[in-house]
Design goal:
homodimer; 132 residues; mainly alpha; 2 domains; 5 helices; 0% strand
């Protein structure tokens, strides 16, 4: 079965089914004059399956972030009680360098890992300042 | 042992050691006229310990993010092959609603969870557009 999109003519599954080997592979995009392959039921099932994995990962991320903020809130309380500044540039520089290295090992863009840490740290400093 | 900070007089540990129960507790900050407690060795060790937990969580986050981008790159390839648009507002709305619920359960600010998903999704759409 083929789900038509954008008013394209319905296509025969036997010719247009992409094959699972193409989905996970690193083949380059087809040239411009290559006909667009409509998603088959199999393709849509594959998409649903990938999205279910993304949803599982997101649930794990949310729970890890919750735990991380529990830790940083304790750190914030400790810093406030001892009049230590909320931000610590040396610690942050070490964190960035470490996360960039871990990102390379995990095949994640290190620039994105750094952006991610900055995103989180901005929220943490906001929490720390709210404690004061 | 006490580490002096900001030129404050060194304090006696027996009077200023905060006690671990105060670190993790939810007591409000001391009133303004309450003397600032200098960090003791014990406090600094506690800070190091919390930071080690944060570093462990960050390593897990980086690896999960790497895995998430592997999934979304597969989705991007699939969408490009089938001429499907990179963004999917309905799917994103469902993801936001779900993550906000999960955040509440995990005691994470749901507004932050939504900001986090937007941050990630922006990067994902950038990847999807780069495939085309």
């Amino acid at each position: 079965m083929v789900r038509p999109r954008r008013g394209s003519p319905n296509r025969d599954e036997s010719t247009d089914a992409p094959g699972l080997d193409r989905i996970a592979g690193c083949d380059r995009r087809a040239p411009v004059d290559f006909p667009i392959v409509e998603p088959t039921e199999q393709t849509l099932a594959e998409l649903d399956d990938m999205r279910a994995s993304i949803d599982n990962i997101d649930a794990a991320l949310v729970h890890l972030l919750a735990e991380r903020f529990k830790c940083t809130k304790r750190v914030g309380r400790l810093k406030a009680d001892h009049d230590m500044p909320p931000a610590d540039p040396d610690r942050e520089a070490r964190q960035i360098a470490r996360l960039r290295e871990l990102a390379v090992e995990a095949d994640l863009d290190p620039a994105f890992a750094e952006k991610f840490l900055t995103f989180i740290t901005t929220e943490v400093i906001r929490h720390h300042e709210a404690i004061r």
